[in-house]
Amino acid sequence: MKKGTKRFLSSLTVLSVASALTLVGVSTASAAGFYKGKKVTIELRGPNQWNNNAKTFGNEWDQLIKDFQKAEPNIKVKTVVQPLNSFYQTNSTQLAAGTAGDLVFNQAKYTPDMVYKLDNDLKKPNPYIAGNKKWIDAFDDKYFGYSAGTINGDGKIEYIPLNLIGIGVFANQDLAKKAGVTLPIKNFTQLFDACTKFKKIDVAPWGWDNSFLPIAWTWRVISSMYMQDAYTSLDVFKTDGSAGTNGNSVTDKSVTKAILTGSLKASDPQIQAALNMLKKFVDNCATTNWSGITNNNGAVTAYDDFFAGRAGMTWGVSFGLASLNAAKFKSTIFPFPAIDKAADPTSPGKDARWGIGVGGTSYMIPISTKGDKLQAAIKFLQFASSKQGLKWAGSSGGISPVKGVSSGVDLGAGGEWGKPQYIYAPAEAPGNTVRSIFDGWLLGTKTLAETTTILQQNWTDGAKQRVKDNKWESESWAK
């Protein structure tokens, strides 16, 4: 581990894998495992979140598959690595057509009828965890489960998290020293100064690529900072959908209502300020030719440029630490800088927030997966929630979703950065992508007014779709 990274992580909490894994074990199984069906091959499809390889998720994942197939010799798992810039659209299309894999990465556009509901299975024991009575009880309900709100509009659970996600700014200390940049960078005034200095030594200040991640993550954190104080009145529904305040964060149902009733508009001053700051960030700091840079890694943006020393900083998540620690330069990690009033007088001046939670590696089972393949897919998800699966999560930098079990590194521990965002702008509507919404503005081919119209239409279309998907049509505000 690089010296700078170690200092940062010690302030956050480096969690022990070995000691924690003694808390769980495997129930006694027959030589043929717990699966009782015929020999079958299941296909798992998702993007690479650990490395830049188009064929494998990495040695740790390959070992997990080997361990599972050893425990269940009648099940073979085929991993299909999908391109980062197209997996969302591919899986969305295939889910709708009924042609998706047997296990699919859950970040896709779909309706509840397209995926298998895991509730009945979650009420039964996980056979790979000794003494477990209900699979759902193994998870930390702070992050996953019914009380955590990780359910669909019908109150059902559609996916299983194999780890949790923490996110931060990965930085090359050697390049920063050469450029005269002081790390960590705490606010946007310091950030823009640092970006100027990095450019003077012919280094991209912040590595960006043409996947959806750089835009999505940067927009989310910038917009949430501007929105934090101004939209407290929108908090009108609890996690379970009933009337009342949620407190820690504004629920999707509350945001949906706000959009359809006009309480949240793309033309609001806070959203306009966020759009302007996003473009200023890109113009001043992002890799100049980012729209032409392909990245097949979901853990570290602009992977090749950053690790080749062509970018001073970039976005990284917890399971990107293995790559960071293998780099040939000293490194560090820090929270996204705050938008201070010196950088923008209209800013609320709040520290950035992100938190940790689901959104890392989570998989669901398409409704088209049936019979023995369905049972095999369920067994894989159960296995990945057991001691063997947690061993994989920890070794790959993941944060355990299982209650009482610590593994990986928590990038969100301590400070404002570790707190959940109070409110942030909703995801793209069906038929849209993050890039189709923001590319014109960021590349200079669309005006702010045009982008505002596109964003508002996206929000409205998305809100109407969420009303339909979650069966909120009977509520007065949704009509």
Give an overview of the whole structure:
Helices cover 35% and strands 9% of the residues. It contains 16 helices and nine strands. It has helices at residues 3-12, 17-20, 59-71, 87-97, 119-122, 173-179, 188-200, 213-227, 252-261, 269-285, 303-307, 321-325, 371-384, 387-395, 434-443, 448-470, and strands spanning 40-47, 75-82, 103-105, 159-161, 167-172, 204-206, 311-317, 331-334, 362-364. The strands form two sheets. Strands 2-1-3-9-4 form a five-stranded mixed sheet. Helix 9 crosses helix 16 (448-470). The radius of gyration is 22 Å and the shape is globular. The N and C termini lie far apart (55 Å).
Could you name the CATH homologous superfamily of the largest domain? Periplasmic binding protein-like II
| Strand percent estimate | 5-15%
CATH architecture of the largest domain: 3-Layer(aba) Sandwich
The biggest sheet amounts to: 5 strands, mixed
Question: What is the strand arrangement across the widest sheet?
Answer: 2-1-3-9-4
Derived structural class: alpha/beta
Distance between the termini: 55 Å
Count of discrete alpha- or pi-helical segments spanning 4 or more residues? 16
**Net shape:** globular
Q: How would you state the average pLDDT, rounded? A: 88
Q: What's the alpha carbon Rg, rounded to whole Å?
A: 22 Å
- The level 1 CATH classification of the largest domain is Alpha Beta
Question: Uncertain regions: pLDDT < 50 for 5+ in a row?
Answer: 1-25
Secondary-structure element series: HHEHEHEHEEHHEHHHHEHEEHHHH
CATH topology of the largest domain: D-Maltodextrin-Binding Protein, domain 2
Number of domains: 2
The level of helicity is: 25-40%
- Overall number of strands: 9
